[in-house]
Structures are given as structure tokens and as C-alpha cells.
């Protein structure tokens, strides 16, 4: 890859509830600009390393680690279980000694294959780990060292839709294709899934909570659902970037982090729900039950009207397309619902339109201060709120005072920079958005146009899915990553 990548093999070590132990890693020495992630064995088994009485199905999820320089490292983890023969020292019976049979395994121990990268390509890494796992468990005539070396030495093309075909060396063919614009989040179906799990009002509450710098905690029985929910909530903030602790999967040994005074977006397994029940300053979202809990001590600021009503209505029309015709005596024939990935992009398009209206005219309130060694861009908050007639608005004031908006100004304030979809939306489409108020068909048409642009940004990202046997191996690519 064009960014350093670690391959790590971690195995259960210790008594019935022990620790993970790194038994192999590649490269054996740190990359020059990337230190080895310490404590990664805690995140590979967030609930603790434990033996199992039965062989469990292999699992996959992605852990996000943030280093001291605020660089994120994406840890794709595939865990499977191997038999531990006579782990407890059980003695064979006389009949077994005579027949020469080995007693069956009493327990199974977890083993994790991990890829650590600064690149966020979870499905590609899932396929690569799946291939390595298949070669290992089926004892195929392929060198594992060769597979891993080929993976770590692959060069990923620059953004802009460039393609790269590579092979791990097992007769496979895999295609990486980068997004057209790095600045636009890649969400798959995670945003649509979050609304399916929690509903419109609850997600809007979480959206307002992160924008006004409150603590948000997800819990679920699925680690991958935790990762997806955190990814979805953060992506709804675009064009803002979340700058506080972001830990989609928090290990049991680090639950004290939840007492941190800073805002955060964190996910924990539902087995720890009793440990988080008494948190007084944290908004807790139950992904499996579809509810959120807002403590009484938290005053959650809401979107200003009429933007709140418009956003709720747009989300209802997109997520429940039959709502508008539900009362018709002669309803039109039902059409197939949008593909999950396109539905995901339509929801994101609604939030793009929302931010375009919230930040309309922000560039006219930028001031370039030259009294320092380097020019500094300052945003005149009072002038901006005064122009909008929202000086007393609690929500927008908190947003403008937040770290996410400060980062937005520093990144998008300079006059000479690459522009993306949001810049074009603010510059040319805000008046069109206002004109569509009260006209749902026109509004939905524009939402779908924006969704198409979001879809095209990643529509050529191929994910390798493979089947492999003892005689041949092949990878079949599809477009399931967008």
C-alpha cells in the first residue's frame, strides 16, 4: 500500500480469561514514519480473550485507533477459533489408549488476523484476510509469507478514480479503485442502516448532540454495527470533521475512558450496558433496541426552524416513499425501494442541503489577518449570525464556537484550494434549495441529483469477493463497496 501497513497474528494466551499475545507481525520492525500500534491485542477481543466450548464462526470488524498526531489507523480484524487439545490435562481412558484415538478437543481458543493501515478500505481488507484465512485453514499449497508480503508491498493509486489491479499470489485478482474526491466520506450503507435502527428523530438528536459537542455512546451486541454507526454519525457532519475522541469499539479494559471530561463518539458491546447505565453526562444509543437515552442534566439544542421541519419532512419522504400516497383511494402501483446504497446517498444529500443552508454566506464573514508571521483566517461570528437573524439561536452559536467549525474555517477559508461538491452546493444551489420549499417533488428530484453525485464518487470502487478450493483460487469483483 502507499501507506505503511502491518500484518499481525495474535493468539490467546493465559488462563480461562487471559490476554492476547502477538505471536507474529510483519514487518518485524516499525516503518520509519509509522510506529507499531501498542495495545492492539486489547481491541481485537474487546470483550476479553476467552476460551469457548464450541468452535465459533469467524468474525470480522474494524477498530479505529488514533495516534498522538491525530492520525487514524484502521485495524481490520478477522478472528477464528482453533482447538486446544487436552488443554486441561485430561487423562485418556483405557479404551482410548487401546484404540489409539485422541480425545476430542475440550475448548477452542481465539486467534486473530489483523491488518493495520491508515487507509480506510474495510471490505478490501476483509477479502484479503479471508483469503489468508482460507489458505491457512485449508492448508493450501500457497506460502502465507508470500501472501502477506504481496499485500504489504502493494501500491495504492492516488485519489481521482485511479485503478490498481493486484494479486496476493494465490491465483487471485483484486482491483482497488480510489474515490474521485478524498474529502467526501465513503459510507457504504451505514447511514441508511443507522436510520433503520434508530429512526429519524433519534438520529437527528444524535446529530445535534455531536455538533454541539456532547458525549455520544452507542451499544450493540455486534461489533461491526458499532463501527458502522460511528462511521455513519460522523459522516453526517460533513463538511465538518469530528476532532474529539472517536473510538467505535472500546475494549472492556478501557471503560474508564467513558468518564473523560471531553466530548466523544464511542461504541461498547451491550454486555457492558450495566456498567454504562449510571453515566450522567452521556447520551446513550441502543442500536439493537432502537432507543436513545438523554440524561436530564443535558440540554440538547435543536436545529433552528424551519430547517428542522424541512429536514424531517425530506427524510420521511426518502426513507418512507409511500408516505405521501398512503391516504390515496387509488394509490399508484408500488415501485421497488431504492437500492440500499443509493438510499444511503439520498439521506446524506439531505444533510448536505442542510449544511449548505446553515452555512450560506459564510465566506463573506471571513477575515484575513496579516499581523502574524503567516496570514490567519478569522471568522466573524457576530456578523454571520446577524445576517441570518439568529444571534440568539443556541444551536448555531454552539456550532460556530465548536472545534469542528474552527477546522472547517481553516480548511475551506483559503481562496485557493481544491473545491468539492459542498463548495459547489453553497456557491450555486442554495437559492434553488429555498425555492423548493413546499414543493416535495422538486425537492426529491434535487436530493436524487445530489445522491447520484455522491454515488458516482465511489461507484467504481470494486470489492473483491472470492471462492477458493484445493485446485484453483479466484476472486470475483463486484460493486458492493459504494
Helix/strand-derived class?
alpha+beta
Average per-residue pLDDT, rounded, comes to 82
- What profile does the largest beta sheet have? 6 strands, antiparallel
Number of strands: 17
How much beta, percentage-wise?
A: 15-25%
> What does the radius of gyration come to?
25 Å
What layout of secondary structure does this protein have?
Layout lengths: L4 E9 L3 E10 L13 H5 L4 E2 L8 E8 L5 E13 L9 H6 L7 E11 L4 H16 L6 H9 L10 E4 L7 E4 L12 H9 L1 H12 L3 E6 L2 H13 L10 E2 L17 E5 L3 H4 L5 E5 L4 E3 L13 H13 L20 H19 L7 E4 L6 E4 L1 H8 L5 H8 L1 H10 L8 H8 L1 H6 L4 H19 L4 E6 L4 E6 L4
Helix pairs in contact: 3-4, 5-6, 5-7, 5-10, 9-10, 10-16
In short:
The protein is α+β, with helices and mostly antiparallel strands and 482 residues long. The chain contains 16 helices and 17 strands. It has helices at residues 40-44, 94-99, 122-137, 144-152, 190-198, 200-211, 223-235, 273-276, 307-319, 340-358, 381-388, 394-401, 403-412, 421-428, 430-435, 440-458; strands at 5-13, 17-26, 49-50, 59-66, 72-84, 107-117, 163-166, 174-177, 215-220, 246-247, 265-269, 282-286, 291-293, 366-369, 376-379, 463-468, 473-478.
Amino acid at each position: 500500500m502507499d501507506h505503511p501497513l502491518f500484518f499481525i497474528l495474535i493468539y490467546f494466551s493465559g488462563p480461562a480469561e487471559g490476554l492476547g499475545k502477538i505471536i507474529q507481525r510483519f514487518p518485524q520492525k516499525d516503518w520509519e514514519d509509522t510506529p507499531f500500534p501498542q495495545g492492539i491485542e486489547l481491541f481485537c477481543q474487546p470483550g476479553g480473550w476467552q476460551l469457548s466450548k464450541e468452535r465459533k464462526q469467524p468474525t470480522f470488524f474494524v477498530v479505529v485507533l488514533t495516534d498522538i498526531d491525530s492520525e487514524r489507523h484502521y485495524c481490520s480484524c478477522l478472528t477464528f477459533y482453533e482447538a486446544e487439545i487436552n488443554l486441561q490435562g485430561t487423562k485418556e481412558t483405557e479404551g482410548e489408549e487401546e484404540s489409539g484415538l485422541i480425545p476430542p478437543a475440550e475448548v477452542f481458543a481465539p486467534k486473530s488476523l489483523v491488518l493495520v493501515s491508515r487507509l480506510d478500505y474495510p471490505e478490501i481488507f476483509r477479502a484479503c484476510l479471508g483469503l489468508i484465512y482460507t489458505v491457512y485453514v485449508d492448508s493450501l499449497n500457497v506460502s502465507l509469507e508470500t501472501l502477506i508480503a504481496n499485500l504489504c508491498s502493494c501500491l495504492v493509486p492516488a485519489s481521482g478514480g485511479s485503478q490498481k489491479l493486484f494479486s496476493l499470489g494465490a491465483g487471485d485478482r483484486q482491483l482497488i479503485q480510489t474515490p474521485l474526491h478524498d474529502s467526501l466520506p465513503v459510507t457504504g450503507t451505514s447511514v441508511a442502516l443507522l436510520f433503520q435502527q434508530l429512526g429519524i428523530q433519534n438520529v437527528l438528536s444524535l446529530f445535534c448532540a455531536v455538533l454541539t459537542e456532547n458525549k455520544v455512546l452507542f451499544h450493540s451486541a455486534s461489533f461491526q454495527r458499532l463501527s458502522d454507526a460511528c462511521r455513519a454519525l460522523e459522516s453526517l457532519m460533513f463538511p465538518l470533521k469530528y476532532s474529539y475522541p472517536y473510538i467505535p469499539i472500546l475494549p472492556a479494559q478501557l471503560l474508564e475512558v467513558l468518564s473523560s471530561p471531553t466530548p466523544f463518539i464511542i461504541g461498547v458491546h451491550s454486555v457492558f450496558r450495566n456498567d454504562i447505565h449510571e453515566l450522567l453526562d452521556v447520551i446513550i444509543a441502543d442500536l439493537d433496541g432502537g432507543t436513545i437515552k438523554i440524561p436530564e442534566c443535558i440540554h440538547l439544542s435543536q436545529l433552528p426552524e424551519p430547517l428542522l421541519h424541512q429536514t424531517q419532512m425530506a427524510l420521511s419522504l426518502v426513507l418512507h416513499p409511500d408516505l405521501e400516497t398512503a391516504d390515496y383511494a387509488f394509490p399508484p402501483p408500488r415501485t421497488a425501494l431504492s437500492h440500499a446504497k443509493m438510499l444511503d446517498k439520498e439521506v446524506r444529500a439531505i444533510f448536505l442541503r442542510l449544511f449548505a443552508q446553515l452555512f450560506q454566506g459564510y465566506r463573506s464573514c471571513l477575515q484575513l489577518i496579516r499581523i502574524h508571521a503567516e496570514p490567519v483566517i478569522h471568522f466573524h461570528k457576530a456578523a454571520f449570525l446577524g445576517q441570518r437573524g439568529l444571534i440568539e439561536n443556541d444551536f448555531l452559536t454552539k456550532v460556530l464556537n465548536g472545534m469542528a467549525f474552527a477546522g472547517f474555517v481553516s480548511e475551506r477559508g483559503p481562496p485557493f484550494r481544491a473545491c468539492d461538491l459542498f463548495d459547489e452546493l453553497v456557491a450555486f444551489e442554495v437559492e434553488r434549495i429555498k425555492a423548493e420549499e413546499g414543493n416535495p417533488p422538486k425537492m426529491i428530484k434535487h436530493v436524487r441529483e445530489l445522491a447520484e453525485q455522491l454515488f458516482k464518487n465511489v461507484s467504481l470502487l470494486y470489492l473483491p469477493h472470492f471462492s477458493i478450493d484445493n485446485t484453483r483460487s479466484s476472486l470475483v469483483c463486484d460493486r458492493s463497496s459504494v
